[in-house]
Amino acid sequence: MVHRPTPEQRRPGRPNLISREIIADTAIGLIAEAGVDALTFQSLAARLGVKHPALYRHVDGRSDLLRAVADRFMETTEWPEPKGSWQDYLRDVAAAIDAECGRYPGMMDLIYNQVWPMPERLIRAALEMTENLVVFGFPQRLALVAADMVADFAADSRIRRDRIAQCTEQWGGFTEVLGPAPDAPDGAHDAGLRAVFDAHFSAGPDAWVNDKLEIVLAGIEARLAAAEAPESHHRRPGAPGSRPVDPPGGEQQAQRRQGAGGRPGVRRAPLRSAK
User: Largest CB tally within 10 Å, which of 75, 79, 170, 206?
Assistant: First the structure.
């Protein structure tokens, strides 16, 4: 997943010309430097070299500015192609959401919690992720639920990690912020549980996210196996015991994409559907 901002170059000595697209690109740059909290109309106007009121010719207040940022971010973001098994694909998607939005602190919270209704590009991306899982052999409804679950998990994990990073900057390392694990007053817990507790939380966010994602994938695999049970003679790709298949980027997927009006070779962002 690669975000590709495309700020417009201006000629020296000429008045600064701005547009909604240029404003959004500049705002994304500010978020990359200092996070969403640093994005204000004052900081944006200063970066663009214009007077503060000039921005209102293109965006109607902060909520509209955030929508422009969300739309532009999604428009200029590329997502991983399916490869290997469906588990590999979902791991790649989750890692891409986490890594890319980690470079833009607060961006995932902005997209998920501060923009409503969700941008159309997010909905189209969710449908394309679901379509990829169908090509891997998922029933349509299970594909939709699995795509939604993994995207939700990755996004929510990124939001929490951004918050943890904020706290650790202010108050020290994560274990200090977390505080000690409470001792059972009656000694009912196993003696080794405290050590497991400390080891888990000391491992840091990367380890937590990976461990929890594997549990999510195991649950999806169990549901897929149950869905296949009535027709166990026909084992779909990615199911227990099956071998990885060629990624759905070949002729079958190209035909499916073109039939749905998509562009071959382009992946949009997987995100949860509006709820």
Answer: 79
